[in-house]
Write a structure and sequence with these properties.
Distance between the termini of chain A: 43 Å
CATH topology of the largest domain in chain C: FAD/NAD(P)-binding domain
CATH superfamily of the largest domain in chain A: FAD/NAD(P)-binding domain
Shape of chain A: globular
Largest interface: A-C, 120 and 125 residues
Radius of gyration of chain A: 21 Å
Helix content of chain A: 25-40%
Distance between the termini of chain C: 98 Å
Helix content of chain C: 10-25%
CATH topology of the largest domain in chain A: FAD/NAD(P)-binding domain
Low-confidence stretches of chain C: none
Number of helices of chain A: 10
Number of strands of chain C: 53
CATH architecture of the largest domain in chain C: 3-Layer(bba) Sandwich
Oligomer: heterotetramer
Strand content of chain C: 25-35%
Mean pLDDT of chain C: 96
Chains: A alpha/beta (416), B alpha+beta (92), C alpha+beta (985), D alpha+beta (186)
Largest sheet of chain A: 8 strands, mixed
Order of helices and strands of chain A: HEHEEHEHEHEEHEEEEHEEEEHEEEHH
Amino acid sequence: MRYSAFSIVKNALTGNVNWKPAWRQPEPKPYYDVIIVGGGGHGLATAYYLAKEFGLKNIAVVEKGYLGSGNVGRNTTIVRSNYMLPGNEPFYEFSMKLWEGMEQELNYNAMLSQRGIINLYHNDSQRDAYIRRGNAMWMEGVPAELLDRAALKKMLPFLNFDHARFPIMGGLLQKRGGTARHDAVAWGYARAADRLGVDLIQNCEVTGIRRENGVVTGVETSKGFIGCGKLGLAAAGNTSRVGEMADLKLPIESHVLQAFVTEGLKPAIDHVITYGAGHFYISQSDKGGLVFGAEIDGYNSYAQRGNLATVEHVMEEGVMMIPGLSRVRVLRSWGGVMDMSMDGSPIISHTPIDNLYLNCGWCYGGFKATPASGWCFAHLIARDETHPVARFLRLDRFERGYPIDEHGAGPQPNLH
Amino acid sequence: MASLIHCPHCGVRPKEEFSIRGDASLVRPDPEASDEAWHEYVHIRANPRGRYLEHWQHVAGCRRWLVVERDTFTHQVFSVTDGAAAARGTSR
Amino acid sequence: MTAHRLASGGLVDRGASLDFKFDGRAMKGFAGDTLASALLANDQLLVGRSFKYHRPRGIVTAGPSEPNALVTIGRGASSDPNTKATVAELYSGLDARSQNRFPSLKYDIGAVNGLLSPFLGAGFYYKTFMWPAAFWEKVYEPIIRKAAGLGRAVLERDSESYEKCWAHCDLLVIGAGPTGLMAALVAGRAGLRVILADEDFRPGGSLLAETMSINGVSAQALTETSLAELRSLPNVTIMPRTTIFGWYDDNVFGAVERVQKHVAMPQAKIPVERLWRIAAKRALLASGAEERPLVFGGNDKPGVMMAGAMRTYANRFGVGAGKSVAIFTNGGAGYRAAADLAAHGMEIAVIIDSRSDAADVAPDGVRVIPSASVINTKGRQRISGVVVERSGFEETIACDAIGMSGGWNPIIHLACQRGAKAVWSPELQTFLAPDVGSGLIVAGAAAGHYTLAGCLKDGTDKAAAIAADLGFSAVAEAQPVVDGEIAPSFTALWYSPGAKAKAFVDFQNDVHVKDIGLALREGFGHVEHAKRYTTNGMATDQGKLSGINATGLLAGMQGISPASVGTTTFRPFYTPVTFGALAGTSRDEHAAPVRKSPLYGWAQKNGAVFVDSGLWYRPAWFARDGEKTWRESTDREVLSVRQNVGLCDVSTLGKIEIFGPDAAEFLNRLYCNPFLKLPVGKARYGLMLREDGMVYDDGTTSRLSPEHFFMTTTTALAGGVMSHMEYCAQVHWPDLKVRFCSSTDQWAQMAIAGPKARLVMQALVEDDISDAAFPLLAAGVVTLKGGLNARLFRISFSGELAYELAVPAGAGEAVADAIMQEGRAHGICAYGLEALNVLRIEKGHVTHAEFDGRVTPDDAGFGRMVSALKPDFIGKRLSTRFGLTAADRMQMVGLKPVEPDKHIRAGAHLLREGAKPSTLNDQGYVSSACFSPTLGHDIALAFLKSGRERYGERIVVWDKLAGAEAVAEVCTPVFVDPGNAKLNA
Amino acid sequence: MTTTYISRHPLEDRLPLEPGIRAVDHLEVPRGKAIATVMAMDGEEAAVAAGLAASGDVSVRFVAPGEWLAISQSDTPEVLHRNLSLLLAEAAYIFDQSDGRVVFRLSGPNVRRILAKGVGIDLHASAFEIGTSSNVLCGHISVNLARSGENEFELIVMRSFAESLFDDLRAMGREFDLSADFAAEG
């Protein structure tokens, strides 16, 4: 069933009883050409592009919980392509371009809202770093603007201009940045993949990876063995656990990142704003809740919940940046398990095992990468060759000395 | 954890007093060790879901590096010991 | 008149009348009222509009689970949007406004959405608004955004204050109802340190609205005597108005105390809200149970209320919810409410019971309709009747309020916040808390004990067990005798069949039964999918009322047990908490500590303009009369240093004293360049790498005696380097005999730089500091004239003849004054960070603008410094990786514009002449740039691919962000005194 | 040429130089205390601890295993350094911190409630006994906290943080009208 204004009217007039399931609930087949482990945004997008762009027919996504139960449904919904390093910027811009046509392509309104993202800076060295970043964006053809204090004051009068401990000097703006409705991205890809024949198998936990003569032949799951020609791992925070099943040793730590939403409020904050004297970022959802977060809790964790010290720290940064948040009530906090890589950048890569492919290391920035991650991972799996924009995102870059370290923090994941 | 850590030198302290570095089971390789051993030491992490040894520093307290043994899923802390004592115990 | 103040009764102070306003209308209430009870007393049934359909809504509950009665209290910067009227304590002057309506609460244009509701079902927005693509942001989204949201946040500076506190106890009792009071008494008497916290302004919980008697005394009298005894115990702290909002690891609880939210004019010296982190050895969750709403047609109109809430309004607040009340129930609680309301003289129009064989006894003369269903309600903004269906027959019964009672949900929120899932109890037809270990014990109604006697006993027993567990002995209590107890059982009813109007599940978000059905039909049957697709449970009440019914409906529609459906995840915050409370005093200028140099006062006197640098305030430049811009001052300072002499505060550098027989060996392993043979009395520049071979930090380290070194680090990484050294010493090399401590704060350190530096310094120092006696990189203790011991270092960041002088911090200002006085004749000036930056760029010295964490020593031109001979140092092995030694790495070079009037800005990128801008063609970037007053044009340090091979090449400095381009010549990064003649003077 | 360099206390701009009127809860800033870091050499921790305990007028604050702050009310920094060096020769490294640390003394019936606004440890007398000291975080600032009496605590902070800590303590004590001045004894 194609979604449209017409379909809504038609169904409304028939009591809304004729809507069809968004996707099937298939039982696993004995064999798939490609199995993707992980029914989150990246796994679903990969399956969709494998079918849509690379013509594969016999694909399954196996998911231990429900579709979109991981980070795609627990992030702060930010979409942007404002990176500095040549290993990252072309990839994220490719992603941004895919975002811009995604809803029409998927026939699903993911409410992409290009409200503009502004990164604040507070001192000369931050400004210089943003100039470097902005020019790197322009090198890739991505428009960026440097705003001074006066321009910011006009645009975001509620920021702390008068009593800030770390004065706000200006900001880097990417107008095309913004937000998207996170769940809808997962559902849109799921529905579109399903329509192309991809089997989306929920409540199916991978418990082992079967190999014969060094080649992956399938996965053991809670629903039995499923054979495959190629296996793609897109398991985010659980990457190390799944990788271990194939004896992969990975440059990944799992960390918890908390996110927050306030009670619903009338529109007050139009942009996505990130704080430069901390890690705080905030935007307002279409439902009115202010959605925000900051840094990870800092310790390795597989629990989707964090601790109060971090909560307080996030709120302190929020009030530092926008004093008027003080009386706004925070409704809910939650946690996601981040696959933090050793340089803060992702991995879309071959592995030492021929038909096993790896997609991980998204740190806390995987959501915006969803379409490009899916596309590039599909490209890698289908053609067995790296997509040009993802050519730096190799697993062996650490060993070879080609880290992509946007923060310059070195091989300590909790600093990225 | 991690709301409170029982520092073996200072007693029970809130998380805010600590900084966290990462896997404490890693031992810096011998200078002559293989490239692979060095790469693995710097970049590869077992990242278990479950029992884990992690280096925390009591930065706002005694500034000692501690080995915190805890569960990465339940966050239960099993033990906290001094990092130097732990390191001396590791044969090199 | 429907809702009204009863002639007598209640715990309100009828002698203390309070004036307040609702939507501008003046009203009166009593001390002890909530805003909700006062609104009801004024017959204000309509209090809000729902989120999606803007339906008229009234008060549903008498507590924190309220979905409808959200108001904005206060004005301007002091307004609190989305405040639940049911928990807002009434005070004189309270000014409340309704929300989410236009133009008024009574006539809300948004209500037109209700007519369109067939088109606006769950998830409708995912299916449309996609064409044309640009219309989403421009047309559809602004309309949706404007219609959405509830209250208005003004985002103005909040003038009120907040703070945070820690508390520690043996036992935290959460909830001061019957269970909690008994528990606190038992534990308090046994000697435990007890904190008893309750979200209400009046402790007592359900006892405050209870009509039963305990051991012959009233519930209210029991509450008072219990509280009096607790207050007399020094080891017990009672915290009213305190909500425990989160349970965190290691039994730390987050709580917020509303200290002055109930006063019109808060006292300035006390916060309005206080955040508590309570570290509790044990906690008892005595949070009670929530009455479950019933899902029936028309169940959302003003006048439909929880039956228990009606009972609370009558018994505790002396307010009748209606004159003629219909009760719709599936258990004994509905009958108890009817009895209490009847006792207050309210008419019970009917009791509609979904069960066929209830043994419960209705008040005399009240008609009971068993096996019945409510299918609709009459009235629009007030209830005028209830439509009942029984065995296919419909009947409309006149009433002006409907009390619903659908059974009980234990309030287990906190117990489920740390990952454990709620457990379905088939016997109790509800979800109970899982066993979460000894840290948090659930008791009373929260544990499924619904009788008052059961609660009193459970609180007593569990507190006694906890006391024993902690090594205290608790006295056994006699069983209380409760008079008038009723059977609290019920038969779960997820949906009252045959609805003739929308039957709401989530009132605030307007999720009705058909939305749940649609979600299921479309494949969103998983309870989390259903929540996200329909938004059920995502409103400000976080599904406190709606969650269980959604689970029940999903189960019922699929013919499975609620156990298989489960609940959505319980997460903090139990009720919403303000940013202000969570931020505490960390706001504005006090958001982070300020570190001040011992030379702060000196800098101030000399006209410093300060800039923050990490936590420090450092002088950026020293403005003199007539100087209009920072550049004027900076240029003067630079030239003055190059020509005469200047004084710069470098006290903020990290300083570390390193002692021990293995100190040299330690430093030798820490730095990439050799330190083992550094002679006593010498300083050496040191480069510290990370283990991955990238530069971490730099600084100078001097050997003051064979076993005593003095290290300086950059200001930015002072703390990081200290931690790194501690890690190395404690974890990597615990057997090295080395100890160190920070001396950053002990020393006032100043750089004296310029051709006349020696002239000035020699006048102050007793010792001979001639070039022969104190050459470049000399370091040692000297005596200032007058006897003050100091440390002197012949090191230079500016490239000039320069010293760094360290004196005890207290004397710093006096010494700096003396140097300035001595230097006056030589044209001395104070210089700040801006001039320092220009001076070092001119000399090609690096800072963290260059060492950005991605740079190797060789990239920055320090390749030869890295010792090839040392067997080991941090970063040695990984620095030889292919990518770190590749020929095309970016290397540091100097740039000067070919046309001298062209500007270069840090952050610009580099392109070959004629090359098209593209990531592929990107040749590098400018790391630092400035106008060099010495040379009269801009200069820059840049990182350029294979840069050192490209001296003399012309390159385009591409700054698209500024819309600027300049051609520059690639050159060595040392612009001034490349032969170091000045340095060695 | 100047021959004596007058030493400044970092709170000179914040506090009157003379003692003022004390409220029941009071913050006092003693001036002129000599403070030194004492770091035991490897294996000498117990000997140093014993030596410090035996050294009469020096009060000792625990910092870390084998590390203490030694404080003297009467000695000059030079004398304290010399005495400690003699006492602990070949056993400990001594470093003068007299200018690098600032001492605050907080006393009164509400001190625990005041400190609980910044300090996360349990200050109940059963958990933090008189005579105990330890480095703790107070708000965002690391301090050495010592209990010198049932209702008296001393905080030692790095000099650069002194003004901020002072502001924090004043704010924490505002509810109880906390007064503040320089200590009379200097």
